[in-house]
Amino acid sequence: MSTSWQSEMTDSKSRLKHLFDTKVLADCTLLVGKEKQPVTGHKIILSAASSVLHQKLETDGADQPKVTLPDVEPEIFQSMLKYIYLDSLDGTGNTVFGLAAAAKAYQMPHLLKKCCEYISQNLTVKNVLQAYSFANDSNDAEDLKKKCETMMRTETKAVLADSSFEEACLDVVVALFSQEVLEIDSELDLLEAADRYAKHISKCDYANKDLSIRSILEKIRFLSLTPEEFEKGRASTTILASSEACAILANIASDKTTVPFPEGFSLRRDPRTTSNVSIIKLMPEVKFQFKVDDIENLANKMGKAWSSKCKLQNLKWKIGIQFSVEDSVKYLGIFAYSIWESETEKKSCKAEVEFSLVSTKNEKSMFSDKFTQTFDSTRSATPNWGYKKFIEVSKLLDPTEHYIVDGGITFQVYIKVDE
Questions:
Q1: pLDDT for the residue 1
Q2: Do the strands 304-306 and 315-326 form a parallel or antiparallel pair, or are they unpaired?
Q3: How is 6-23 classified by DSSP, letter by letter?
Q4: Rounded to an integer, what distance in angstroms lies between the CA atom of residue 205 and that of residue 200?
Q5: Which CATH number fits domain 4-122: 3.40.50.2300, 3.40.50.10280, 3.30.710.10, 3.30.70.330?
Q6: Which listed residue, of 56, 95, 226, 264, carries a Cα 20 to 30 Å from 88's Cα?
Q7: DSSP code for 209
Q8: Using one digit for the tens of pLDDT, what is the confidence trace for 189-217?
Q9: Nearest one of 73, 109, 108 to 94, comparing CA atoms
Q10: pLDDT score recorded for residue 344
Q11: Strands 315-326 and 329-339, how do they pair?
Q12: 166-169, long-range: CB within 8 Å, 24+ apart, which pairs?
């Protein structure tokens, strides 16, 4: 046997490429895929790359072992071999997802890491749901999962509109609809997408066998819609049963209705938004949601939190919360601030303000209080009124009150200002 190639190739990378290309010195055969396509290789190189391949080759016991690998497609296996021999990632498009799955199955964390990096760097609205499905099923892809969730939240409408949405696994769609923040105009975007998805649901094998199309509907915040919006939305879809649609409409129209809300459906009334303020109604009054994240940590640190600003009757308004202690009891306080355009200009306005702490238990469990006050710019540049002891922190953090959702609380704020 000629050995000229061994002396002519001065680096190990070139010698390994020669072995990969020519299969010279190959001492094992792998029968790949359902058709058992034969692929020759080198035991020592394959065993060094994968503990699974090492075990299979050792189990055979022969000098020239022959093992069957039915769980990987030949094209994917060739890409895996190219990585093993050449340290080259030969995966693009959907191929890289198959390669990542093979890396996980054959216990090659180094290859899995490279696949995740490639997917992350080439993430688009077309592949983000497939990437999330893979990352969610892997303990070694947390960074990729977080990046997918960010894209799902910030480019929601594009993700929903892409044809890949209709092919996504059901558990991935449930995860998308469960995000606290989504870039949508209203929950009607989700209802329309759910209706379209139901007509083209993928037959993929998802982990949770208890999931159904209803599990998607349960994530939609129907109560954040107006009766008119809901009527318009449900008229163009077929996914909601008539009895459920009537019950939802009755509960949207009145919080005093005796019609039971469909079991399992979301009781959230706050719209999803990228801001901590969600405007519901504006001019000559404003009604909005103010969300405060990580409330328990904020309470422990006696910290403060501010809402984003909103404009009403030529004034900017914001809400602030802070904590205080009186007689060993800790309270959460909440205040409305009016922000005057000029600190020297003397102005005043009469405003009616109502604060409500949202509970997911039911609408009647909302803790609220209201006052009417003249906000006078002579008092300070940003006059404020409110409640120093709006609610005891112990009650706020009580899980039976259902004020905390995903670590945060939500206030519903209503302000009406005289001209």
A1: 45
A2: antiparallel
A3: HHH--SHHHHHHHHHHH-
A4: 15
A5: 3.30.710.10
A6: 56
A7: T
A8: 999 999 999 988 755 555 555 678 899 99
A9: 73
A10: 45
A11: antiparallel
A12: 166/196, 166/197, 166/200, 166/201, 166/202, 167/200, 167/202, 168/129, 168/130, 168/133, 168/197, 168/202, 169/133, 169/202, 169/204, 169/206
Per-residue pLDDT of 233-267, as tens digits, reads: 888 888 999 999 999 999 998 878 899 999 999 98
Query: How is the chain split into domains, by residue range?
Result: 4-122, 138-274, 277-417
What tokens were used for 185? 């105009």
First vs last Cα of the chain: how many Å apart?
A: 98
pLDDT at 99 over 80: yes
Residue with tokens 């396509």: 37
Count Cα atoms within 13 angstroms, Cβ side, for 191.
25
Helix (H, G, I), strand (E, B) or coil at 92: coil
And the tokens for 27?
């001492």
Residues 223, 250 contacting (CB under 8 angstroms):
no
Assess if CATH 2.60.210.10 describes domain 277-417. Answer: yes
Q: What is the mean pLDDT of residues 84-97?
A: 83
CB-CB contact of 240 with 230 (8 Å): no
Q: Is 396 helix (H, G, I), strand (E, B) or coil?
A: helix
CA 169 from centroid of its chain's CA atoms: 15
Other C-beta atoms closer than 10 Å to the C-beta of 191 total: 23
- Report the share of the chain in percent with pLDDT over 90: 53
Contact 220, 240 (CB under 8 A): no
